[in-house]
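Lecture 7, part 2: worked example. A protein chain together with iron/sulfur cluster.
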Amino acid sequence: MSEAICQENIDTKLDCGYACRKRCRQVTPMSATQVHIVLERLCNLLRVEARAQGAAQGLLPVQLEVLHYLSQCNRYSDTVQSVTEFLGQTKGTVSQTLKILENRRLVRKLPDAADRRVVHLKVTPAGRRLVSKFVPARSIAEALGLLPERDADRLAQGLAQLLRAAQQANRAKTFAACKSCRFNQVVDGAFRCGLTGEVLSAADIELICREHEYPAVR
Ligand code: SF4
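Predicted complex, written out as C-alpha cells:
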C-alpha cells in the first residue's frame, strides 16, 4: 500500500508513505523513488506556471530562466559560456535566447573594462522587474506560506542539502552563493576571492558563481 498513490491521502493525493493526516500507517523515511516522484511533480508544476507566465509576457520558459540566472550571478559568471554551462543548453540556443532578451531590452551587453574580448550580460531594470514577477513561483510561495515557519525552514535546508549532494554525485558545477565557497576569504575585514585575488562586496558574496566550490567535508 505504501508505494501506491492514494486518493484518500487528504494532504497530497500521493502515496501513503507521505505525511497524510489520516495516519492509516506509520510514516517511514522517503525512498529515492518517492523523492523522485515528488520532485518530478513539483518541477512539472513550476514548468506549467513558467509557461503560463512566460506566455503572458511573450517569452518562453527558457528565456525566463536565462533572465533569472543573469539576475543572480556574479561578474565572473555573466557570460554566454556560463549561461550555457548553467542551463546545460547549446551555445546556439543560448545565443538565440539572448538575442531576444536584448531586443526586448531586458538584457544588455557590456564589454569587460580590462579585457575587451570578454562580454558581460547585464540584466536591465526592466529585466529585474520582470524576474520579480515570476520568482518565486506563486504556487511555491503559497505552499510554503501554508507550512509552519520551522517546517518551511527545514524543508528549504533539506532541499539545499539534496541539491548539493546531487551535484556532488554528478560532479556538476555547484553555481552556489559566493559566501559558501572555499575560496572566499576575509582579509583585513574585507571579503576577497582566493581565486582571482579581487575584493568582494557584501552584495557580491550573495551572488552565485561558476567557479564556486564547497569546502571539503572533514
Ligand atoms: S570566492 Fe568562490 S564563489 Fe566567490 S568569486 Fe571567488 S571563486 Fe567565485
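The chain has a mean pLDDT of 89. Residues 74, 76, 178, 181, 183-184, 193, 195, 209, 211-212 surround iron/sulfur cluster (CB under 6 Å). Keep this in mind for problem set question 3.
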